[in-house]
Design a protein that fits this description.
Number of helices: 4
CATH class of the largest domain: Mainly Beta
Order of helices and strands: HEEEEEHEEEEEEEEEEEEHEEEEEEHEEE
Radius of gyration: 19 Å
Number of strands: 26
Strand order of the largest sheet: 18-19-22-17-23-14-13-20-21-26
Largest sheet: 10 strands, mixed
Helix content: under 10%
CATH architecture of the largest domain: Beta Barrel
Low-confidence stretches: 3-13
Structural class: mainly beta
C-alpha cells in the first residue's frame, strides 16, 4: 500500500481486466525482508524491480512504473485516454525469453501506467498492484520465497484453509477495483482489513525490536491499524506491549506507535505475536481518499507480510478467496474445527 500509487489508482477506477496463463508459471522475483519484488529482465539485460503489492496502485490491467523508470530503462512513453483522463503509459517492452511478466490486457495496447511521481520507498522501479493482479490466481510462497501465477484450473490442496475476500462490484457483479478485504480475528473479535502484501515499515531504533528482518535501507513489512482501534486495544489489553515512536515511514506527517498483539487468527490458522503499526484514522476512513471508500465494506487497517510470512498464500481473485497453508509457526484453530 503505497500512498501515491493508491491515490492514482482511485482516479482510474474501472473494470479489472482478467487474464490467464497455462501451465503454472514461476514469476522472476527476489524476496527481501518479507516483500516480493518482481524482477523481469528486459531485452537489454537490465532488470526492473517491482514490488508485488496487493494493496498498491494501477488499474485496467496495468502495472505501475515510477516517473523516472522509463527514461532509466529507455522505454518509450505515450498518452492514453481513459474516459475524461489522460495518462502516461509505456506501450511495449521486450523481455528476454522466460524472464518476463505474465501478459495482461490493458487500454491503448499498453503495458504499464507511469506515475506522476517516483513513490519509491526501497529503490523499486514500480509495482505490480491492484490494477495488474486481479482476474488471476497468484501463490505467494513465503517459506520458499517464490511467486507463482497459477493456471485457471488450480485447486487448493487439502491442507489449505480458505478466507473469503470482499471486493467492490458494480450492478453487473464486475470488480470496480482490485482491493481485497479479508477478516482477521483479534482477541475474539472479527475485524476487516485490506489484504496488503506491500504494507511497509521503516522502524526506528526502538521499533527494530518488532522486525523479523530489514532490507539494507531499513525497510521491512508491517500490518497497519487505525489509531482509534489502537487506543481501544491498549485500553482493553494493558499487558500488550507498545513501542512509542516505533516507525518513521510517514516522517513528520505522523508519529507511529507499535502494538504487539499476542495472537491473531486468519482463515482458521493462529499466528502470533504480531506487531501492528499505527496509522491515522483518516488513512482507513470511508471519507473520500480514505481506504475504506474504495472497499466493499469499511476496513480498520491492513494485514501484511508479517502475518503472511507464516504461510503459502494463494490469492484466487476469480473465486474471491485466499487460501492459506501453514509453513512455519502457525497452528490450527481447534475451537472452531469440526
Amino acid at each position: 500500500m503505497k500512498g501515491q500509487a493508491v491515490i492514482m489508482a482511485m482516479l482510474l477506477a474501472g473494470a479489472v481486466c482478467p487474464a490467464s496463463a497455462e501451465p503454472r508459471q514461476l514469476v522472476p522475483t527476489v524476496y527481501e525482508a518479507g516483500h516480493f519484488y518482481a524482477t523481469p529482465m528486459l531485452a537489454t539485460g537490465e532488470r526492473l524491480r517491482l514490488i508485488v503489492d496487493t494493496g498498491g496502485g494501477g488499474n485496467h490491467g496495468w502495472f505501475v512504473l515510477g516517473r523516472q523508470a522509463p527514461a532509466r530503462f529507455g522505454l518509450a512513453t505515450d498518452r492514453c485516454r481513459i474516459g475524461e483522463n489522460e495518462v502516461d503509459v509505456v506501450r511495449s517492452m521486450t523481455f528476454r525469453s522466460g524472464q518476463g511478466l505474465p501478459p495482461s490486457a490493458a487500454p491503448c495496447g499498453s503495458m504499464a501506467l507511469v506515475m506522476p511521481g517516483d513513490g519509491s520507498v526501497d529503490g523499486e522501479d514500480g509495482q505490480l498492484g491492484a490494477g495488474y493482479l486481479p482476474g488471476r490466481i497468484w501463490t505467494f510462497d513465503y517459506p520458499a520465497q517464490k511467486l507463482w501465477l497459477e493456471p485457471a484450473r488450480w485447486k487448493a490442496a487439502r491442507d489449505m484453509h480458505a478466507a473469503n475476500l470482499g471486493f467492490p462490484r458494480d450492478e453487473q457483479g464486475h470488480l470496480e477495483s482490485g482491493f481485497a478485504r479479508i477478516a482477521l480475528s483479534v482477541a475474539g473479535e472479527s475485524m476487516d482489513f485490506l489484504l496488503d502484501t506491500g504494507a511497509t515499515a521503516r522502524p526506528t531504533e526502538a521499533g527494530k525490536a518488532s522486525a523479523a528482518s530489514l532490507s539494507e535501507h531499513g525497510i521491512g513489512v508491517a500490518s497497519y491499524i487505525a489509531s482509534s482501534v489502537f487506543e481501544r486495544w491498549r485500553r482493553a489489553h494493558p499487558s500488550w506491549r507498545v513501542i512509542e515512536h516505533g516507525d518513521n515511514l510517514l516522517g513528520a506527517r505522523f508519529d507511529s506507535r507499535l502494538i504487539e498483539v499476542p495472537e491473531v487468527m486468519i482463515a482458521g490458522w493462529r499466528v502470533g505475536p504480531v506487531w501492528f503499526t499505527e496509522r491515522p484514522d483518516a488513512a482507513f476512513s470511508s471519507k473520500p481518499g480514505g481506504m475504506s471508500s474504495y472497499m466493499d465494506q469499511p476496513v480498520v487497517g491492513a494485514v501484511g507480510g508479517n502475518v503472511f510470512m507464516h504461510f503459502t498464500m494463494t490469492v484466487d481473485y476469480p473465486a474471491s478467496k485466499a487460501w492459506f497453508a501453514c509453513g512455519v509457526d502457525c497452528w490450527r484453530d481447534t475451537t472452531t474445527a469440526k
